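Objective 1.3, modelling of assemblies. Example input:
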Amino acid sequence: MARIVIVSNRVPSPTERGPRAGGLAVGLADALKDGGLWFGWSGEISAQADGTVKRVEAGNITYATIDLSQADYDRFYVGYANSTLWPLLHFRLGLIDFRREDLEGYIEVNRLYAAALARELQPDDLVWIHDYHLIPLGQELRRLGVKNRLGFFLHIPFVPASLFTALPQGNTLLWAFCAYDVVGFQTEQHRRDFVDCIEQLLGLTVRGDGTVVAGAVSMRAIANPIGIDARGFAALAAKGERSAETRRLKESLVGRSLVIGVDRLDYTKGLPARFDAFGRLLNAFPEHRQKVSYLQIAARSREDVSEYQALRRELDRKAGNINGRFAEFDWVPLRYMTRAVSRNTLAGFYRAARIGLVTPLRDGMNLVAKEFVAAQDERDPGVLILSRFAGAAENLTEALIVNPYDPDEIAEAIHTALVMPADERRDRMAHLRARVFDVTAETYCRNFLAVLKG
Ligand code: GDG
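Predicted structure (tokens):
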């Protein structure tokens, strides 16, 4: 059987016990259940970042990592990946901060990864590369003579050709995608937009099944939505409900309904409009004053990028305004924290909530929506309010779907959810749960690897 090699920008440490442990490590666990190699950046910045590989064995998985230099980190990670590609692929052209030297750094780091990874590879390895930091890695591996099957999965959205053309030297990046055997997207829409770019901007023909065959190119674009370990998460939530933290949370609510939001502190997540929406709910529907508490957990992220610092200031201000305007001496409407909480705690909190508020302006998929659904008690479930621009909305259609740019619409949806009869909540949640338990982390890994095997 072929060995599986996973490559991602950050490699989870096998001993990681921090609050953010989870994420990709959980999502990809199934791909490595029979063992394999996980390769990428150690998360360390060091002066001697010369591509030396550090190895840690844990069970049947080898974790192999390299360090980055400060200059590489600045150009590759803070620069091109998070200040050009991230805003571009989330439809935010106005936030792009492109510098040629960042693009050069991005290519150089991908070359560094390729040289180190090529030395680790065995001829039959199936190589599965993840996300926008590493788009050119496949092409760099091919330049080094690597003949293995190479797959790539983009966790974030893709944009229509009319937006993609804003990217300086964008066609070079499109050609880099063409070095893979399989390129995966979260949704059918993202896949279609990518295929349009390949056809319109590169002039290649894409067949109905997403295959491009032209010269040296033999690539297939597929839609393969990511999911969660729904059964595992449901069990975590049932247990978390009895945890000391969840009990404390419930006691602090004194019977009020809980609205919960959980996001990385990121401008794609629609947090300012969401805060505004909550303010408008309290203004337009005064019957909910003192009856509802909104807990927003927004773990700080990418603090080196200036846009994220500006967002944090904006949210601090908005949170202060809402609480200053509506709070009573014994009720604080908005509880806003920028610290991460543990996964167990999170699971219990989702289950305690009447409403899961997930309103990104754009999102590849959004796993929080799926976690909220998996965590619910079927007998007395909460309501999911979901942005139409989250990839998850493609199949979680029984959520209350909203336009995340319209705070009034979100406020009305919160009101609808707060007064929704139990029968309707159960009915909607039963449909949502069927989907979340059907498209899981396991099916995601299995389907992608089946296509990659060819
Ligand atoms: C990218 C794409 C796509 C959040 N706060 C805490 C915490 N989290 C966990 C959540 C969830 C994960 O982080 C966030 O995943 P999302 O999918 O919501 O969003 P991104 O981080 O932007 O992920 C996204 C995803 O990749 C996978 O393909 O769905 O579209 O943007 O698991 O629970 N976890 C803990 N404490 C926190 O405070 N423990």
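The mean pLDDT is 95.
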